[in-house]
Design a protein that fits this description.
heterodimer, A: alpha/beta, 6-stranded mixed beta sheet, 47% helix, 13% strand, globular, B: 443 residues, 4-stranded mixed beta sheet, 52% helix, elongated
C-alpha cells in the first residue's frame, strides 16, 4: 500500500509526544576510530520526511557527521519522491543515498544498474543484526542493495479497551469476539474499504500466515497464479469475517464506503460505532488526532490474530539504498544499517527498527515497545507489504487491480472464485509490461 | 486560451488600430523580434510536447521498443479505457447542455429582479472554489450517513415521514435453523408446534439498551392450555439459547400463527416477552415473527454506485459551472438591443414568445461560445472525478483525462498514456478550432 504522507507524519507527532526535541546527545560518546576520516566529503540523502520526521532523521545524520567528519545534506522530496528520483537518475544527478518505500522501484533501479550493491562490511552487519526475512527486503535477484531503515508494523488490531475484555490470540477467538459483540447488537469491526490498500493488508496478513513466507514471496513475483488454492484458502478465512455484514457499521456496503480516517474515528471518535479496527502502527497517530482516546490507555492494540499458530508480521517502510559506492557513501550506509542510527530516532519516537540489536527499551512508550518487539520477534516471518512488491498497475492503483478486487470481495465475500479470477487477469496484464 | 491575433488583423477600436498601424508600418524584422519570446514559449511548452507525446505514443511502456499504433489499438480494446470513453461521452452530451440551459435561465430570471447582482454573486461564487475543494464538499453532500450527507438526510427524512421505523431493527434469530428468515425478512420457525406446545424463541443481535422501557426478565412459559411461548433477547456473552438472569423479554413483537402457510391468529408479546395463543384446534402450527418487527432503518440512497456515480459528479459540476455560464449569458443579454424586445412586446407577444423568438435567437452566438467552452472544459475534466469517486467505483466513473493520468503514472505505461493524451487532444481540437473561428469572426 501507499500510505498517505500525512498519516505517517502524524504518526511521528503522536509517538513523539513524550520525547524532547531531537536530542542528539547519543549514549555512545565513543567516536568510531578514524573519526574525521571523511572530513570535507559531502553527501546527499533524499527521503520523503518533513517536519518532525525530518528533525529526527537529521539528528541521525548529525550523529554520522560527528563520527566521521563528513557533511550530509538532507533533501525532503515529499510524496513525489519516486518521480523526482527517477528524473534525477535519468539526468545523472542521483543522491548518494535515498530512502525509497517502493520495492518495485528499487528493483527497477537495481536491474538498470543505477544502484550499487552494498559493500561486504555493510552486508555483514545486516546479516548479523537482521533476520533473514528482514534482510531479504533489501535484496534484488539475490544481491543486497538496501536495508529497511524505518519499518512499519502492519499487523496490529486496535481496540477500545473498555469494549474488549480479553484480547483474542487466534483467528477463531477473534471471530468469536466479534460474534459475541455483534450478538449484543453492536457493530464491532470498523473496516476501511474505501482505500483499497487497507483491504490488501487484511489479505496479506492472512496469506502470510496460512500460506507461509515462501508462498508469499512466490505470489509477490507472480510465480504462482492468484487462482492458486493457497489464495482461495486465505480468501475463505477472510470471508469468515467479511461475510458477516452484521459485524460492520452500515454492513458491507458501509464498510466499502469507509475511508481510512473514518475507520479509525468509527472506533476512537467522540461517538464510537465499533470496537475494533485493523491497520498498521500509524493508527495510533489517527487516534491521537481524533483526541477522544489515549493510546496505551483507553486505546490499545493486539497483534493480528494467528491462523497457523505462529506470529508473522507484514511490514513496510523506507528502504535505504545507495546510488554511489565511494567510501563516504559506504560509511553512511554502514551507519544507517547499524543499531546506533536506528536508536537515535527510535528514542525520539516514530521509528520502528527491524535491527535486532536495537534495545527494546529505547522506544519511548509501552505501545511502541510492543510493536517493535513483535516486528523483531517475527524473525523470518516478516515480509514487506505484498501490494508494494507487485507492479504499481496491479498493486498500487486506485480503482484497479488488487485494490479494486479487494473492494469487490468486501462488497460480495461469497464470490471468492470471481475475485481470484479478476486478480489473476489484472496481474497477468501488469506483470507482462 | 491563446487566441492568435494576426499582426494585421482588423482594428475594432481606434486605440488598438493606432498600435497595429505602427507595427504594420514598421519592419517585419522588428515584428519578428517582438514575436520571438512568445514563439519560443509556444514552441517549448505547446508544440514540442504535442509532437513528443505523439512520438511517445508509438513506443511501449519502457519507451525503447517501437510498437506503431499498438497503443491506440489497446486504447480502443481495453474495457477500462472504453468505459472512460463512454463516460466522457456522457459528460460531453449532458453537462454542457444542462449548464448552458441553467445559466440561461438564471441570466434571464435575474435580469428583472431587485438585488440581481447579489443573487448573481452567490450563483457565481462556486467558480471561486477549486474543483478539488468542491469535490470534497460534494463527497460530503452525498455521504451515505444521513447525519453527514445532506442528500441522504433529505431522502431519509422524507422516507421516514411516510413509514415509521421498526421496533427492533437488525435483530436476528440466535439459531437460524429454529427461526429462519423468509424472503420478506420475517422469521418463521423451522419446526411445527402443537396447539398446546411451548415455543420459546431466542433473538439476538440487538443492544439490550434498545429494549423498550417496560421490558422485564424473561420467564420460561409453563405448559398449559394454548400455544405458549416467549420471544426474548438472548444477549451475546451469556449462555446461548438459555434464559440467563437479566435477559429480558421483547415486548410488542407481532407474531402470526400459521397453519399451512395461512395465518390463523395474530398476537403481540407482553412485557416479559410471553405470548399465549388460546383455543387453537389441534394441528401443526408454525410461528412467524412479522417482518416489520425487524426492518432495518432506511439508510438513504447509496449515491456512489456504478450507475449513479457519474450523474452525481455531473451534478456537482453543474453547481460549480452554472455561475460561469450565467455571467457570460447575462453579459450577452445586456447587449441585446432593447428596442427589439420592446417591439415584440408592443406587437402583443407573450413573455414566453419574446424569450423563445427574440431573446434566444439574439443570444445564440453567446450561447454557442459558452457551450463550446464548456465542452472543452468537460473533455479535460479530471480532479472532480478523482476526488469524488470512491476507489471501489472509480472504474465506473472514470473519464479519459483521468484514465490517461492513471495509466501513465499509476500503471507506469507512458506509451498508452501518451496515446490517450493524443486522443484527448484530437477530441478537443474541433471545439478549439470552432472557438478560434468565432473569435476571429467577432473581430
Amino acid at each position: 500500500m501507499r500510505l498517505p504522507k500525512m498519516v505517517t507524519a502524524a504518526a511521528v507527532a503522536a509517538l513523539a509526544l513524550s520525547s524532547a526535541a531531537c536530542s542528539s546527545s547519543s549514549n555512545e560518546p565513543a567516536k568510531a576510530p578514524g573519526s574525521a576520516a571523511l572530513q570535507g566529503q559531502t553527501l546527499t540523502v533524499a527521503a520523503i520526511w518533513s517536519k518532525t520526521e525530518q528533525q529526527n532523521f537529521e539528528a541521525v545524520l548529525t550523529e554520522f557527521e560527528k563520527r566521521t567528519g563528513a557533511t550530509v545534506q538532507y533533501e525532503s522530496l515529499g510524496d513525489e519522491l519516486p518521480t523526482v528520483i527517477k528524473t534525477r537518475v535519468a539526468g545523472g544527478q542521483a543522491p548518494n543515498v535515498a530512502m525509497i518505500a517502493q520495492p518495485g522501484l528499487i528493483a527497477e533501479f537495481a536491474r538498470a544498474g543505477n544502484l550499487k550493491p552494498l559493500a561486504a562490511n555493510v552486508e555483514s552487519i545486516i546479516t548479523d543484526q537482521f533476520s533473514a526475512g528482514a534482510k531479504s527486503i533489501g535484496q534484488v535477484d539475490g544481491k543486497t542493495y538496501g536495508v529497511l531503515f524505518k519499518a512499519a508494523n502492519k499487523s496490529s488490531v486496535w481496540y477500545n479497551a473498555a469494549d474488549v475484555a480479553t484480547t483474542p490470540k487466534s483467528w477463531d477467538e477473534f471471530i468469536s469476539e466479534l460474534k459475541k459483540q455483534s450478538d449484543s447488537g453492536k457493530t464491532p469491526l470498523s473496516v476501511a474499504g474505501e482505500p483499497g490498500w487497507a483491504l490488501t493488508d487484511w489479505f496479506e496478513n492472512i496469506y502470510l500466515q496460512t500460506a507461509g513466507p515462501e508462498m508469499y514471496d512466490k505470489l509477490a513475483k507472480h510465480e504462482i497464479p492468484w487462482t492458486d488454492p493457497s489464495v482461495t484458502k486465505a480468501f475463505e478465512e477472510l470471508a469468515k469475517v467479511f461475510g458477516q455484514s452484521s459485524f460492520f457499521p452500515g454492513g458491507n456496503a458501509g464498510a466499502v464506503a469507509t475511508d481510512f480516517p473514518t475507520s479509525v474515528t468509527n472506533v476512537f471518535g467522540t461517538s464510537p460505532k465499533a470496537s475494533l479496527t485493523f491497520e498498521g502502527d500509524f493508527v495510533s497517530a489517527e487516534i491521537t488526532k481524533a483526541g477522544a482516546f489515549t493510546v496505551g490507555d483507553t486505546a490499545k492494540y493486539f497483534a493480528f490474530p494467528q491462523l497457523a499458530g505462529k506470529s508473522a508480521v507484514v511490514t513496510g517502510g523506507d528502504i535505504a539504498v545507495a546510488f554511489k559506492d565511494d567510501a563516504a557513501t559506504t560509511a553512511l550506509m554502514e551507519f544507517l544499517a547499524s543499531s546506533d542510527a536506528a536508536s537515535v530516532w527510535a528514542k525520539a519516537g516514530g521509528l520502528l527498527s527491524l535491527n535486532k540489536k536495537v534495545a527494546n527499551d529505547v522506544y519511548p512508550d509501552a505501545t511502541t515497545r510492543q510493536l517493535a518487539k513483535e516486528l523483531v520477534d517475527a524473525g523470518d516471518n516478516v515480509r514487506y507489504d505484498l501490494s508494494d512488491l507487485t507492479p504499481s498497475a496491479f498493486g498500487g492503483t486506485k480503482g484497479a487491480g488488487f485494490w479494486k478486487a479487494m473492494q469487490d470481495f468486501l462488497a460480495n465475500p461469497a464470490n471468492v472464485a470471481a475475485v481470484q479470477q479478476s486478480l489473476e487477469t489484472s496481474a497477468a496484464a501488469a506483470y507482462k509490461k | 486560451m491563446g487566441v492568435p491575433r494576426g499582426a494585421d488583423a482588423g482594428s475594432p477600436t481606434p486605440d488598438e488600430g493606432r498600435r497595429t498601424g505602427v507595427l504594420s508600418g514598421g519592419s517585419p524584422r522588428l515584428a519578428l523580434v517582438f514575436l520571438l519570446p512568445a514563439l519560443a514559449l509556444l514552441l517549448l511548452f505547446l508544440i514540442y510536447p504535442i509532437f513528443s507525446s505523439a512520438i511517445r505514443s508509438t513506443y511501449d511502456a519502457a519507451g525503447d521498443r517501437f510498437v506503431g499504433l499498438d497503443n491506440y489499438v489497446q486504447a480502443f480494446t481495453d474495457p477500462q479505457t472504453l468505459l472512460s470513453l463512454r463516460n466522457t461521452a456522457i459528460w460531453v452530451i449532458v453537462a454542457p447542455a444542462v449548464v448552458t440551459t441553467v445559466g440561461l435561465l438564471f441570466a434571464v430570471l435575474t435580469e428583472r429582479i431587485r438585488w440581481a447582482t447579489a443573487f448573481r454573486l452567490v450563483v457565481f461564487m462556486p467558480i471561486a472554489i477549486s474543483l478539488f475543494a468542491s469535490g470534497i464538499i460534494f463527497r460530503l453532500v452525498y455521504d451515505q450517513e444521513p447525519e453527514r450527507g445532506l442528500a441522504n438526510a433529505i431522502t431519509v427524512s422524507v422516507h421516514d415521514a411516510f413509514s415509521s421505523p421498526s421496533l427492533y431493527p437488525g435483530a436476528r434469530p440466535r439459531d437460524p435453523a429454529t427461526l429462519t428468515p423468509d424472503p420478506s425478512g420475517a422469521l418463521v420457525t423451522g419446526r411445527t408446534f402443537g396447539a398446546n406446545d411451548v415455543a420459546p424463541l431466542a433473538i439476538t443481535g440487538l443492544a439490550p439498551d434498545k429494549l423498550p422501557e417496560g421490558a422485564v426478565q424473561a420467564v420460561q412459559p409453563e405448559p398449559g392450555p394454548g400455544l405458549r411461548g416467549l420471544v426474548w433477547l438472548d444477549v451475546g456473552g451469556g449462555t446461548e439459547r438459555v434464559i440467563d438472569s437479566g435477559e429480558r423479554g421483547m415486548p410488542g413483537v407481532v407474531l402470526q400463527v400459521l397453519r399451512d402457510n395461512a395465518t390463523v391468529a395474530t398476537m403481540t408479546t407482553g412485557n416479559d416477552g410471553r405470548y399465549v395463543v388460546p383455543d387453537l384446534p389441534p394441528g401443526d402450527y408454525k410461528i412467524r415473527l412479522a417482518e416489520n418487527n425487524f426492518t432495518a432503518p432506511f439508510r438513504g440512497i447509496n449515491w456512489f454506485t456504478g450507475t449513479l456515480v457519474t450523474p452525481v459528479i455531473i451534478s456537482a459540476w453543474i453547481w460549480i459551472m452554472a455561475g460561469f455560464a450565467m455571467t457570460f449569458i447575462a453579459a450577452g443579454l445586456a447587449a441585446i438591443p432593447r428596442d427589439a424586445l420592446e417591439a415584440a412586446r408592443v406587437d402583443g407577444a407573450t413573455e414566453w414568445q419574446v424569450f423563445r423568438r427574440v431573446t434566444v435567437p439574439l443570444l445564440s452566438p453567446v450561447l454557442l461560445v459558452v457551450f463550446v467552452t464548456l465542452v472543452i472544459t468537460v473533455l479535460k475534466i479530471f480532479d472532480l472525478v478523482l476526488v469524488m469517486a470512491p476507489g471501489s467505483v472509480l472504474p465506473e466513473a472514470n473519464v479519459l483525462a483521468l484514465q490517461m493520468w492513471q495509466v501513465s503514472f499509476g500503471g507506469n505505461d507512458p506509451g498508452l498514456g501518451s496515446a490517450l493524451g493524443i486522443l484527448l487532444f484530437l477530441l478537443v481540437l474541433p471545439a478549439m478550432i470552432f472557438n478560434i473561428r468565432r473569435f476571429r469572426g467577432d473581430q
